Amino acid sequence: MKPTATTTENGLVVEGLCKRYGDHLAVDDVSFALAPGTCLAIVGESGSGKTTTVRMLVGLERPDGGTVRLDGRDRSARARGRDERLARAREIQMVFQDPYLSLDPRVPVADCVAEVLRLHTRLDPAARAARVRELLEQVGLGEREAAALPRRLSGGQRQRVAIARALAVEPRVLVLDEAVAALDVSIQAQILDLLATIRREAGIAYLFVTHDLAVVRHVADEVLVLKGGRVVETGSADRVLDSPEHPYTKLLLGSVPRRGWDASRVASERRPAR
User: Residues 208-229: what's their mean pLDDT?
Assistant: First the structure.
């Protein structure tokens, strides 16, 4: 999925992204485009370069090569000053696999969300409190959860808090890094339904990082497959999942347990593919 003229001026465009750690090339010439309101799933095994790629997009890692542009603005160079760093943070927000690590365990949920608003907006205390209630209600949390400490919430509830905090700054792009991987299947379904509703209503673009191809089918418009830091296949979710072209994509799909699945055969096929 190479960037096109229609996405270059409106949306997220990544071209030739590279990242090296010593002698290891973790991300090698990765390019893709993400239009507003769409969802791109980046899939691959552990070590494929998925998380390193998105960490560069949000500014947690510096790329060694390539460009990242959002709505035509270059985000590749180092931000100049606090105001630019905050502006970039508002544009692309990230929700991690374990939200507990990003929540202050000593601070009630409502205050965790309010702190984001205090940092990024000029709302007065009353307006911030009203906005916090609105955000928590949007993700299905009420007054009881708002007053609770993070450790008192379930994993699904904490993930909803993390989503509310990310939405507080009205981002253009929401990066979800294995955001439902640690949740029970029933809770996964609730979070995925919530994300679909938010995307439909707010028009936010999603970058969904996962190894779970069953989830990809439910959330993604496009799929990008990474192996060893390189893009090996990309296309519409239906095409990639139903008619994969690259042997590695076929191997990933063949590794999904289902009726008649032969674990020994899959394991033997994986050895020469590495």
Answer: 90
Looking at the predicted structure, is the pLDDT value of residue 186 above 90?
no
Contact 173, 70 (CB under 8 A): yes
Residue 247 — left, alpha, or beta (φ > 0 → left; ψ -120 to 50 → alpha)?
Answer: alpha
Domain shared by 157 and 269, yes or no: no
Planar angle of CA 242, 213, 222, nearest 5 degrees: 65
Q: Do 178 and 218 lie in a common domain?
A: yes
User: Tell me: the pLDDT tens digits for 116-163?
Assistant: 999 999 999 999 999 999 999 989 899 999 999 999 998 889 989 999
42: β partners: 209, 224
Selected residue with higher pLDDT from 262 and 100: 100
Residues 6+ apart with CB under 8 A from 23: none
Contact (CB, 8 A) for 27 and 49 = yes
Specify the pTM.
Answer: 0.84
Whether residue 250 sits in one domain with residue 127: no
What does the block give as tokens for 32?
């893709």
Q: Do 169 and 256 sit in the same domain of this protein?
A: no
For residue 268, what pLDDT band results from cuts at 50, 70 and 90? low
Count the alpha carbons within 13 Å of 75 in the hemisphere toward its beta carbon.
28
Q: Which of 60, 63, 83, 82 is nearest to 14 (CA)?
A: 63
